[in-house]
Design brief:
Distance between the termini: 22 Å
Low-confidence stretches: 1-47, 103-107
Number of strands: 23
Mean pLDDT: 85
Largest sheet: 6 strands, mixed
Shape: globular
Length: 583
């Protein structure tokens, strides 16, 4: 036990199984007060004799015990690097008494099915854009823009209006280009302008279904997360940014962000998937910015374009079939992208710090994407709860299964990993990987919401005014690395079917060994977290910085056994801590 020291540096968990199978609504008009997050003292590890426990650490070694009589024990590994960048793995040695030479590392994955659903076009990551805009408040007169663009939306919107909507077309790797897609305002609902790509011949019944999908998403997101509304005196609307008009040159100082439309409607663009590059959808803060501001950033190689309205973009995939598009894709994707918009409004425009030229209100991608995956869950359950649907089985649980099948292949905090080929992987680490990156982020937020009070947690994550680690600490009272450790052990305990009564190690409403119905009458099965089999003589494990790896013992002596994990320190900043679950 590390007496007197907070458990903040990392968490490495050794899970040892005998065998482990293959926001609230509201106007949002008030600015958010700045929050001061107090330091958190770590919770001492529980007693070593319990079914779930942390190991003792000394230097680069952590040691613990599988107690006598255990039939199953998951021995697990995790890094507490909450600000990991890119994908690197650290090499560690797992051994029991008398074993000093590790065996050859074995495979660390199980097979998963093929992707049925498209991945998001781009992660919700507007850090670079926001930083560049903020530079306009600090720099002198910017250079005359080499490319300028005028507003494209008509001044008055009514059903039948048309416009060449700016759309970001790109690839999974993140490259994107702005294209203009002719679109028609096909439907107005209580909270949305539904724009449709002119290449899509949608029927009135299909449009009505899209409207219902969005209104369901709006009701769910504003209940569980926050409101997308903001008043004209919001901190982010302070006139402190240089603006370049269409004629070129600086045209005075103005607000970087648009005033919210008087009718408070969200613009939803239904895009032929080919015009998105074959990917799913996205939100970009650029559309909440004035074009006069973005004109100052437009250069010969990088351009930013704004539709000057609160837009989200969702793909229409003819190959998926109309039933699936209307009853799954657009139910989940509208909720997913709307959460991103709500998140940016609350962090980038409403937060008290948004009036500062040095403030970047962009939420950390793995947290933001996890919240949007959670938004899918809640919206699908809201739409189909009467059919017994509890979770977004077709998408959120499918991506969770990709992560659970190979946790060592993904860094949670870096939002990077190696997806299987069936999910678009190419054998190399990818940022914003469509399967396991989203699956890990989703499971983390699912666990945190269930542990920390449901909507009280998600409301706090939207409205604290903080981002990243500070936001997690504000909403939970725990440091991010401490939450990582508890999360990993909760996955271990749930995979073994162990319930300690300790909320830290209870996964919550989702069982990682459960079977869940979707709205089409099919069932998604979850098989718990995969653990690398332990090999006699000791095992070498590669664990991702900012992520997890798990080891499964093939047998547990009746008298129990001690276990040691040694960090070879092959990757800097791993930050190791160890624990185990047993049954």
């Amino acid at each position: 036990m590390k007496i007197g020291l907070p458990r903040f540096s990392a968490a490495l968990f050794l899970l040892v199984p005998l065998l482990l199978g293959g926001c609230g609504g509201g106007s949002g008009a008030q600015s958010i007060a700045a929050q001061v997050v107090p330091p958190v003292q770590g919770t001492p590890p529980p007693a070593a004799s319990g079914p779930v426990t942390y190991f003792q650490s000394s230097g680069l070694t952590s040691s613990g015990t599988i107690v006598a009589g255990a039939q199953q024990a998951l021995v697990a590994i995790m890094s507490g690097a909450s600000s990991a960048s890119g994908f690197t793995s650290d090499s560690l040695t797992v051994s029991t008494p008398g074993e000093a030479t590790p065996s050859t590392r074995v495979a660390h994955a199980r097979s998963v099915g093929s992707a049925r659903v498209p991945v998001e076009a781009f992660p919700a990551d507007d850090r670079d854009l926001v930083q560049r805009v903020q530079s306009l408040a600090r720099a002198g007169d910017p250079s005359e823009p080499s490319r300028v663009t005028q507003t494209v939306l008509p001044g008055t919107l009514s059903v039948g209006s048309s416009a060449p909507i700016w759309v970001q077309k790109g690839s999974l790797g993140g490259a994107r280009v702005n294209v203009q897609v002719p679109a028609v305002l096909a439907l107005q609902t209580a909270h949305a302008n539904i724009w449709v790509d002119s290449a899509l011949p949608l029927t009135p019944d299909e449009l009505a279904a899209i409207g219902r999908d969005f209104e369901n998403a709006y009701a769910s997101d504003t209940e569980h997360f926050a409101s997308p509304d903001y008043a004209s005196n919001a901190p982010g609307l302070q006139p402190r940014y240089n603006a370049c008009a269409a004629g070129g040159g600086v045209k005075g100082t103005a607000a970087a962000y648009i005033t919210e439309p008087a009718d408070h409607r969200i613009d939803v663009m239904i895009v032929n998937s080919s015009n998105l590059g074959g990917l799913g959808g996205y939100f970009s803060a650029a559309n909440l910015m004035t074009q006069a501001t973005l004109n100052c950033l437009n250069g010969s190689t990088t351009t930013y374009e704004s539709n000057e309205a609160p837009f989200i973009f969702v793909g229409w995939f003819a190959g998926s079939g109309t039933e699936y598009d209307l009853q799954e894709d657009l139910v989940r994707s509208t909720a997913h992208e709307l959460q991103h918009l709500i998140n940016f409004v609350n962090h980038g425009i409403l937060a008290a710090g948004a009036s500062s030229a040095s403030f970047n209100g962009n939420e950390t991608p793995y947290i933001n994407e996890g919240l949007s995956m959670l938004a899918q869950d809640l919206a699908v359950a809201a739409m189909y709860g009467g059919k017994g649907v509890q979770f977004d089985a077709d998408d959120a649980l499918a991506r969770a299964n990709v992560y659970l099948a190979a946790p060592a292949n993904f860094s949670l905090s870096a939002f990077t990993g190696v997806d299987p080929v069936a999910w678009g992987g190419n054998g190399t680490p990818q940022y914003n990987c469509g399967g396991g990156c989203y699956g890990a982020a989703y499971l983390f937020q699912r666990y945190l919401r269930d542990r920390f009070g449901g909507d009280a947690y998600t409301h706090a994550m939207e409205t604290s005014g903080a981002t990243g680690d500070r936001n997690l600490q504000f909403a939970t009272g725990e440091s991010a690395p401490a939450l990582y450790g508890d999360f990993a052990l909760a996955m271990a305990a749930d995979s073994l079917g162990v319930d300690t009564g300790d909320p830290r190690f209870h996964f919550g409403s989702l069982s990682l060994n459960g079977r869940y119905a979707d709205q089409f009458g099919a069932t998604t099965r979850m098989d718990g977290v995969f653990a690398q089999p332990y090999a006699a003589g000791g095992t070498t494990v590669n664990a991702p910085v900012g992520g997890f790896a798990f080891v499964a013992m093939q047998s547990v002596p009746a008298s129990g056994t001690s276990v040691s994990v040694t960090d070879r320190a092959t990757s800097p900043g791993f930050l190791m801590e160890v624990g185990r679950a047993q049954k």
